[in-house]
Design goal:
The protein has 634 residues and is of the alpha/beta class. 40% of the residues lie in helices and 20% in strands. A hairpin with a 6-residue loop joins β22 and β23. α2 packs across α3 and α9 crosses α10. 42% of the residues are buried.
Length: 634
């Protein structure tokens, strides 16, 4: 069993210790050029040492700010390890970062070095980079020999060619741990900018090591666990997951959106870390695949899911595992339990059959998945119930870049379904109203948090830092939530995303949008209506499913995509179908119905309308479709 990480360990200490303790174990598996590669912890150590040695010769040292522009690949974690060893501060970003945003971050973070993934990516930003006078050198991860006299661009091939290691190199590499402290910054991560200009979150070794020490116990992480990785490595949720895996000697398999489904079956992970949007995608794909095979089979599957979900809910009523926000009279609670007992008896046989049949879905996840972690924000209730019904243990977690990232999570120590669990260990969390008064259970307000994982401030942004913290040191998350009587957190919205109608009604768009995506022909939806009399929605349709819906509801069919998007009869019928889901019987208010909808002819793209974790950039979408929104809600 692995030793406990000492309290004063930095992230670099942890990586060194794991490299030595688990030297012969496989740290990473990845594919390149149709070949599969496995990398041991010992090889990871050697690769990081060789790269750190090369960086030192190019003047990267303690506190050097280094932009790392790359997607998931083994070289990413090697580069990260090497920069950590030197005390350099990484400024990571994905390859889809627009040139203008990249220019802002390079300038604002005062980057002296740039590490870029490919020659093609370098050429895409070439004109802008020529203006970056502060840059001392550029390193290209994947390229042939690129260095020329009087040029400061090098490929990894240039700087690593013919490198050898001596015992003195190894000793020096290990000794560099003594130059680092817990309060040294190790990265500046620029937020994805869902509500405006990106802000640089400065994270220290103390912030990330809180997560590395605390989270493994919450999910009973063990050496034999295998992760399949799909999220961007530079994003704090994925980055923390990789550090957790490394801290316990686990293996991480680098996957991609294209190969994810196949990799789940091939590598049979025990753990998967994703975000809510990817679960929505999997939900749609499985249901659509069944519908294509046979509508009868699809209906049977949905019936089995409903039976399993209903059984699970009644069992939780009996075991007090559903969220409660106010005290329930003893007689009423007794009545609920009697009813649950009766229903459990009636559902016992159908549930056994349903669970047996639903094992086939678990096989799609490799058949060995003991836990799936969904991070960022809460899962939509329908999706959480679906995942639970098919027999996958879901850890619904809440975090932010500013907390590196853990705030709360419904892990193994919490059985209260439909919540985000209690705050993480030694984390103070409170709910406050607009006057900063603390609220009791069941009352919704802003979530504020204080703890060792919380960052100390945004880089070079005094005004934003004044707004971000309370006088007593709590970080204002900007998210809205409430606590159960037993202390579990439930997210109710995001304060900056709340739509306020002209009548003064406040509406959280996320709940309505997630409900609309239950319809098979809705790939995505964005609610609009700020300062308007009512609500509208921009709809990204699945055209194949939309045509199927039209042909099943109308006698005529619409041939062209353009005609389909503009057909008023189709729009009215789709709107009616949506408003059927937004009925008061489903918990929606009369003013939350849609007055109008508009079909978009293009999907939202990562790096444009979507962040790297597939969250919607509302300010970008609203600006891009301003004219359409204006006509939609006159």
């Amino acid at each position: 069993m692995a030793a406990t990480i000492p309290p004063q360990s930095t992230l670099y200490d942890m990586l060194l210790n794991s490299s030595l303790e688990y030297a012969e174990r496989i740290a990473f598996t990845y594919r390149s050029a149709n070949s599969e590669f496995e990398v041991s912890y010992a090889k990871l150590f050697d690769d990081a040492l060789i790269l750190a040695k090369a960086f030192t010769q190019r003047k990267i040292g303690k506190d050097s700010k280094v932009m790392l522009l790359s997607d998931n690949r083994y070289a990413w974690i090697v580069t990260d390890f090497a920069l950590l060893s030197l005390g350099a501060i990484s400024v990571p970003r994905g390859s889809d970062t627009p040139t203008r945003e990249l220019e802002f971050i390079l300038e604002h973070a005062e980057c002296e070095f740039l590490i870029i993934e490919t020659e093609q990516l370098l050429k895409a930003h070439e004109e802008m980079l020529k203006k970056m006078k502060r840059l001392k050198a550029i390193f290209v991860i994947v390229a042939d020999k690129t260095h020329r006299w009087f040029d400061h661009t090098y490929s990894y091939n240039d700087i690593l060619k013919g490198r050898t290691l001596t015992p003195e190199d190894r000793d020096g590499f290990i000794a560099q741990r003594y130059a680092l402290t817990l309060d040294d910054p190790f990265t500046i991560i620029y937020t994805s900018g869902t509500t405006g200009t990106p802000k640089g979150v400065v994270l220290t070794h103390r912030n990330i090591m809180y997560n590395v020490r605390t989270l493994p116990g919450m999910i009973a992480l063990r050496e034999t666990d295998r992760w399949v990785s799909i999220l961007p490595s530079w994003h704090i949720f994925e980055r923390a997951a990789e550090y957790l895996a490394l801290s316990k000697g686990c293996c991480t398999v680098y996957s991609s959106v294209k190969t994810f489904a196949d990799d789940l079956e091939r590598y049979q992970p025990t753990l998967v870390a994703t975000v809510p949007r990817l679960w929505e995608s999997m939900y749609s794909k499985i249901n659509q695949a069944l519908e294509k095979q046979s509508p009868r089979k699809a209906r049977l599957f949905m019936a089995l899911v409903k039976i399993s979900a209903r059984y699970n809910k009644q069992k939780r009523v009996l075991l007090n595992q559903l969220p409660t926000f106010k005290k329930v009279f003893l007689l009423l609670r007794w009545g609920q339990k009697v009813r649950a007992t009766v229903l459990l008896g009636l559902l016992a046989v159908p549930n056994r059959l349903a669970k047996k049949k639903l094992l086939a879905v678990q096989e799609k996840f490799g058949g060995h998945l003991r836990m799936a972690i969904s991070g960022g924000g809460g899962l939509p209730p329908y999706l959480e119930e679906w995942i639970d019904a098919v027999g996958i243990r879901i850890v619904n977690a809440y975090g932010m870049t500013e907390c590196a990232p853990a705030i709360a999570g419904r892990a193994l120590d919490c059985d209260i379904f439909g919540t985000l669990g209690p705050p993480a260990k030694n984390t103070e969390l409170r709910i406050v109203d607009e006057a900063e008064h603390e609220l009791g259970p069941g009352q919704a307000g802003e979530i504020q948090v204080r703890g060792e994982q919380v960052f100390s401030g945004y880089y070079n942004d005094a005004e934003e830092n004044r707004r971000a913290f309370t006088p007593d040191g709590f970080f204002k998350t900007g998210d809205l939530g409430k606590l159960t009587l037993s202390g579990e957190l439930v997210i109710t919205g995001r304060s900056k995303e709340i739509i306020v109608l002209a009548s003064g009604e406040n509406i959280d768009p996320s709940r309505i949008e997630s409900t609309l995506t239950k319809l098979p022909f809705v790939s995505d939806a964005v609610l609009v209506g700020q300062d308007k009399k009512g609500l509208g929605a921009l709809i990204v349709p699945d055209f194949e499913q939309l045509r199927h819906f039209v042909s099943s509801k109308f006698e005529h069919s619409v041939e062209s995509t353009e005609a389909l998007l503009k057909d008023k009869q189709v729009l009215d019928r789709v709107k009616a179908e949506m408003n059927r889901l937004l009925h008061p019987k489903q918990g929606f208010k009369p003013f939350e119905r849609l007055q109008n909808i508009h079909f978009l002819d293009k999907e939202f793209k990562m790096g444009d309308e979507l962040t790297n974790t597939l969250k919607k950039k509302r300010h970008v979408i609203e600006k891009k479709y301003r004219e359409i929104i204006g006509k939609l809600l006159k």
